[in-house]
Protein: Enoyl-CoA hydratase-related protein
Amino acid sequence: EVDYIVKGHIATITLSRPERLNALTSTLLTELAESIEEANQDESVRVIVMTGEGRGFCAGQDLKTVQPGMDHGEYLKHYYHPVIRALATTNKPTVAAINGVAAGAGLSLTLACDFRLVREDAKLSLGFINIGLVPDAGAPYFLPRLIGSAKALELALLGDTITAQQAYEYHLVTKVVEAEQFEDEVTAFSEFLSNRPTKVIGYIKQLQAASSESTLEDMLAQEIIYQSRAGKTEDHQQAVQAFLEKKAPVFVGR
Ligand code: LHQ
Structure:
């Protein structure tokens, strides 16, 4: 239910149940967590892209699998949380390529990524409230941090479907891309990222992740540690040399 391919330095993970708008099942979620872990471990991978097959990105949990008597909390713990943790803790840059509708936990998956590229005609909806549920799969953590608590609460309480353009105005997505350009733009963006200083990208991510729970003094201490590490990378040393020689830097990710 998940396709995984590595091309050059880019791992592309495709949610693949197109007849149901890639609605999530326990099998799909298990495979998704394994794919993210595989990309995370593979040293040749410098970018992780997640996208959907067919006309949708992901319609959230497959509601046909929701049984009476099922404990949603336990389900989250077993199937969703490993995916969200894997996305949120990888040191590699992650891109959600939102090729079509993203609803419920389908939208939540994208919030745990570093970048969201969205097709101009894709619709986004938190949606949970419309079926009497709270937002989940990391959304209560990520959404207020991404767009501020007022807008986050509004989307959660109203459950509205918003357009790609609105999502951009709310600072929810990185970029809105014309439909015909979408695949080329995802490739170009991922290739650009894959040629950046990958190790330092990981440091930047770890440093920023530390920020939400820290004081200024904590963060000043953290930046000493990370800049000291960044300063010792091959990419930094080579890029300074290239600058002085008026050449373009070539980053190897180390
Ligand atoms: C679907 C689904 C779907 C099954 C479309 N399931 N078939 C939940 C429970 C437990 C524990 C943990 O956490 C969660 C997390 C959650 O994600 S809850 C939120 C679940 N998702 C939703 O409530 C969204 C439901 N879907 C929709 O609102 C619409 O389908 C959207 C806005 C996604 C797309 O609308 P359209 O583009 O108009 O497509 P459609 O509605 O015609 O859907 C196409 C087909 O896909 C259709 O099947 P059919 O046999 O009639 O062609 C839908 O029934 C099916 N489908 N979402 N979540």
